[in-house]
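Repro case for the chain-ordering regression, as requested:
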Amino acid sequence: MDTRSFIDVIVFVAGGLLFPIISFGIARLLAPHNPTPEKLTTYECGVPVIGDSRVRFPVHYYVFALLFVVFDVETAFLYPWAVVFKQLGLFALVEALIFIAILVVGLVYAWKKKVLRWV
Amino acid sequence: MDYMLILPEIILTITGIVLILLDLGLAEDRKGAVPAVAGIGFLAALAGLGPSVGQNTQVLWQMYSIDSVSLFFRTLFLAVGFMAVLVSWEYARRTKMAIGEFYHLLVFTTLGMMLMASTHNLIVIYLGLELSSISSYVMAGMLQDEPRSGEAALKYFLIGSVASAIALFGMSLVYGLTGTTDIVDAVGRLQLAPPALVVTAGLFLLAGFGLKVGMVPFHMWIPDTYQGAPTPVTAFFSVGPKAAAMAAILRIFVLSFLGLPALGAGWRLMIAVLAAISMTFGNVTALLQTNVKRMLAYSSIAHVGYMLVGIAALPPRDLSAVLTYLAAYAIMNLGIFAVVILVEDQGQAPEIDAFRGLAYRAPWAAVAMAVFFLSLVGVPPTIGFFAKLQLFLAAVDAHMVWLGVILGINSAISVGYYYSVVKVSFLRDAEGVPPVRAAWTISAAVVLLAVGTLVAGIYSDTILRWTASGVTLLMR
Amino acid sequence: MVSLHGYLVLAAFLFGLGLYGALARTNAIRILMAIELMLNAVNINLVAFAQYLTPGLVTGAVFAVFVITVAAAEAAVGLAIVLLVARQRGVIEVDKINLMKW
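-- result from build under test --
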């Protein structure tokens, strides 16, 4: 059996495992640990912090962000399609329209569930 | 025509979208139509399997395999989906789950499972895996006011995503070693690849899919998720996604890794050892449980072990033992969960004590429960006995008699905890427990599955012939 | 020009980092981020393999596009579940979410 390839893999696995351990370990060793109240405050562009960062803000923000991420990423499928649009022709056009139609159902769902209404 | 062969998938997609729109369009008091539409969708998709019968081809640019193994799994998943509609109907109404969401997620999970089981392409396996997983994470958290349900969903999600990522890393290695994502094409090239890298890729894949089926040592999420999720969802999880992950293991491992001349024996031995540990761990831990759902969760780990016996013993025998056991397990495990749901529908937590005097409160349900337990243990004339016998014979044929013996010992251990439930149902009186009022849907599911367990056991040789016919096709 | 090995080493390290984070961290959001790291490691693998081993064929790149979109869907559902748990329990540390034995 090819033993060299096993050595390769062992080196790989060891590297993969050791990398996080070593880097976290070095950080712990080198970093001076001497906190003062100023250092423990949240860094906000150098401006003194006002209030707690864990204020409640409407869940709408999250839902908007989630919706944005999902719909935004779906365009990843449309770019390759657009590049080879002329070669693929009508068939791919129909497929893409079906794809978009299914996405629209998702949008309609969000709309009807009143997620898109800003309060 | 390609599209006739994927008719069930098309029907399910349309059903899912119709369910979303129905949920939006129907007034709150007319939502009762939603499960009915889902049920009809599953039945229509089952009928849509017609053109696929007897086919052995690949459609959609070699991305989708229509062979008898895929026919087996698609039939299984659609039937499981339909039964899930039946058992959840009353439960969903009673617990005020968001039924619009629940049923379309059920439909999409089933669709994902079908994709997973009927393709030789790693990309499609991954997409099916994620479609079914992501939908099922949400299903686990369906009870919004029940913290345990949220906890189940979170744990299922975290473990499930890690599992997907690990399996995916293995897939990327297979692709790197062979230059193709088609498993059938990859087989020949894997034999030329450096064995160490092949082993690494295989271990990643086994760990990823092992997490999904819940074999030891990747079982830790199973008890919590199964206990916390709504019971109909647990019933569905315990058979559907499990069988789908098993299908992926069959496609990937049986075709490529187990067949490697140098390494095949090692893989088989490893799977055999994992099988032995899974069943022993599952059965022994189940003995300690008082919550029936949690007990059945450990029992399901044990049953995964049984199925792995069939995979470890593959080459001399064919896939029929594993497939038969999957089908048998689906029937009997859905059945036992249907009884648990029936008891829960009376407003009781699924502790063993809730089954007190079931034989007097609902004799038919108690008898059905006894049938399911007998089948899970493997007592003739049930399908469970027959399926387990096939596994045992497969182990013996593969010169793994020790594995067969462990299988037998474990069946004996499992009597202990199954009997504890039967005992309180038949031997304790029903004092202080409400009488059983069952909705027709759940009653129909219990009766149907109990009859199925018995009838399938009696006509078992027909089933064996049916599953055996598929094997050569998968191997090509 | 970077060799294939360079990409593979990067991917392996990234994957190890992600796996470490997923197993060692208790905050659900951090675990989620670690999972994303693992998926991105896979993407690097796929794209590198596609470029070096099968030039001209885009299978690996297409696979990566699918992984990216699925990862977004997964993150969305995951965050929603975390939100649900935060609303129910007020914590998202997985070691404190233990109504059932873990």
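Ordering looks correct now. The mean pLDDT of chain A is 81.
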